Amino acid sequence: MTIRTLLCLLLIPFTGEIMAQELTGKQLLQNAIEYHDPEGQWSTFRGKLKIVMETPKSEDRISEIWIDLPSDIFRLTARKGELTTHYELINGACNLRLNGELEFDLDEAEKAGLTCERATLYRNYYTYLYGLPMKLKDPGTNVDPVVKRMTFKGKEYLVLNVNYDQEVGTDVWRFYFDPTTYAMEVYQFFKGDPEGKGKNTGEYILLDGIEMVEGMKIPKTRAWYYNKGDKYLGTDILQ
């Protein structure tokens, strides 16, 4: 065996490591998008999501969501116990219902969080989280060009650091991808620099399982925890 052949054999186990180190942030993001949305469906997504939210010492919240991105339509009907709230945004126009009724007591509605401001918040929340990692290509999103290798809960990941233009958002995010498949398995946000004053702020979300939705691989469960103290907050389950 020649020295050249021996060197080639020795290098084979490290090829994946070298390639990962050479990935830029944009390349890692593109690889992750190709895993989760191989046919580029997100930008024209029209579909329904049913999500069960489990939280400690509380009844489950069942949400049925209709998202139509091309037509700018968002609908959410949420049921928790005997209370049903309905939010609808169509091209910016807001419609609300409380227990199926268009006319309702305003104080009762405010107590239930039934407001147009909350409708906008829910739209942004669900389209962002369930549109990841594709949403990281939106305007105002700043992807760090340096990809880091970090260990989280005993597993090593390729990590993408993201912040936003001031008018978009102030949180600092980390996204953790499997180094082989590029599947997104964890994300985490901080209220400031995670290496500084923001270290013990914010939350992390553990993703598990995959549901196929309109050709996209969307995480089935999202379990939420505080960064500080690892306190469990709840789990969203996509059905």
UniProtKB/TrEMBL annotation:
<keyword id="KW-0732">Signal</keyword>
<dbReference type="InterPro" id="IPR045444">
    <property type="entry name" value="DUF6503"/>
</dbReference>
<protein>
    <recommendedName>
        <fullName>Aspartyl-tRNA synthetase</fullName>
    </recommendedName>
</protein>
<dbReference type="Pfam" id="PF20113">
    <property type="entry name" value="DUF6503"/>
</dbReference>
<feature type="signal peptide">
    <location>
        <begin position="1"/>
        <end position="20"/>
    </location>
</feature>
